[in-house]
Write a sequence for this structure.
């Protein structure tokens, strides 16, 4: 394993005649990442990490989204007490071009943009020692990066205060801000008590729809647990997910070849560990609604959904009914929480969800005064390009259907001018906040 090992301290253990040396290793190569598998999995069991911090998710993400990028540099910091890993920070550095030779280096979590929660892994009871040593390492190597952007930190994470203090001591300054909500439903002692958390009017309607879908349309709930069926089940899910988004002019996440390959590889790995919850509604033996979910410890969550137009049954909110089936199944398994993950879609609140915030930390190296300006410029460029592409895709889809492409294009140009100016002013005032796209990033 290619690492840089730096001994920082000796941790004195009370009532013992010896002390355990504390070392910090910096892993920068794919082979070094591979060598961490055993330690990573052991640390996972001793930490409060989520499924997005598992070795399977993080290593596969790096394989597809990190390794092929020449401007990305792996930067995993591992803290060990003696020979035992007590914490690690799964990070990478991205070299970002702004304009011509103007560029900066950004430190971020592995898994960004495709993961709903990101954080460090720390053994329970070792938080103080880990963050102290992490601070030493970041301070020693602070010249390696100009900006630290830590996104999607869960609300209950200690990183909100400790990681921020560590970065402040390392010569960085900035702020933490709320980036998104992840609505979540907490189960009651019984399923009936859980149903009572749903708003009364919606609960009555949903129960009628569930009964109608089951009795009149003979729909069945299916959870895929046989590894031999996973390939065909993923084929069905990807097709229905794409169909759901294509009909309204969106590409869908699986249109991106890298994203498609990532999920085809990570899904079997998650299933092998018991962390995949892939479920469908079937009618006459055919799947017509699906949910690609994750189950980890005491939580189950929905990651992506999909559905076909199934005629009259589509009027009964089959996607929401499918999630009710999943919630009931999870309750029977002893799961305590159903996480709808990021996005404030209305259906989540009809199922008893309450908002739980995700946080982002944006810190700048105090010794590089031009970096905040460069970062704002890049954020503005990316946001406007993404929004323009998003709107152009929707516009051209509708234009082709209506056959008035030239008229629509002219209208688009006129209306975009005001929007672009407004977006530019918003980004200038609040560069850390994302521009509203009308859909969540997934």
């Amino acid at each position: 394993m290619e690492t840089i090992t730096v001994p920082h301290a000796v941790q004195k253990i009370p009532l013992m005649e010896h002390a355990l040396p504390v070392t910090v290793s910096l892993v920068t190569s794919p082979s070094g990442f591979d060598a961490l598998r055993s330690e990573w999995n052991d640390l996972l069991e001793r930490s409060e990490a989520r499924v997005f911090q598992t070795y399977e998710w993080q290593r596969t993400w790096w394989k597809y989204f990190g390794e092929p990028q020449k401007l990305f540099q792996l930067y995993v910091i591992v803290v060990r007490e003696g020979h035992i890993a007590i914490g690690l920070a799964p990070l990478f550095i991205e070299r970002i071009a702004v304009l011509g030779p103007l560029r900066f280096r950004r430190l971020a979590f592995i898994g960004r943009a495709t993961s709903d929660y990101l954080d460090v892994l720390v053994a329970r009871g070792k938080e103080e020692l880990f963050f102290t040593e992490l601070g030493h390492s970041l301070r020693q190597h602070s010249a390696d990066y100009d900006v630290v952007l830590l996104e999607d930190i869960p609300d209950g994470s200690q990183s909100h205060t400790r990681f921020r203090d560590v970065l402040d001591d390392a010569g960085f300054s900035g702020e933490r801000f709320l980036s998104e909500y992840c609505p979540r439903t907490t189960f009651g002692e019984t399923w009936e008590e859980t149903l009572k958390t749903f708003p009364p009017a919606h609960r009555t309607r949903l129960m009628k729809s569930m009964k109608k879908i089951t009795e009149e349309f003979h729909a069945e709930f299916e959870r895929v647990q046989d590894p031999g069926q996973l390939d065909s089940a993923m084929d069905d899910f990807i097709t229905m997910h794409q169909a759901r988004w294509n009909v309204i002019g969106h590409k869908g996440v699986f249109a991106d070849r890298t994203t498609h390959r990532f999920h085809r590889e990570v899904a079997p790995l998650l299933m092998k560990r018991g962390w995949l919850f892939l479920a469908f509604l079937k009618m006459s033996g055919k799947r017509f609604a699906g949910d690609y979910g994750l189950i980890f410890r005491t939580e189950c969550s929905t990651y992506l959904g999909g559905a076909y137009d199934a005629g009259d049954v589509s009027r009964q909110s089959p996607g929401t009914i499918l999630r009710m089936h999943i919630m009931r199944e999870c309750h029977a398994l002893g799961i305590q929480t159903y996480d709808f993950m990021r996005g404030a879609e209305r259906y989540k609140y009809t199922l008893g969800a309450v908002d739980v915030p995700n946080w982002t930390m944006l810190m700048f190296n105090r010794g590089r005064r031009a970096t905040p300006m460069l970062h704002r410029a890049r954020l503005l460029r990316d946001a406007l390009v993404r929004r323009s592409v998003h709107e152009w895709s929707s516009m051209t889809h509708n234009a082709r259907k209506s056959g008035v492409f030239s008229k629509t294009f002219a209208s688009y140009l006129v209306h975009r001018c005001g929007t672009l100016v407004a977006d530019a002013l918003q980004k200038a005032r609040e560069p850390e906040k994302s521009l509203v796209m009308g859909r969540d990033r997934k």
About this structure: The two ends are 34 Å apart (CA to CA).
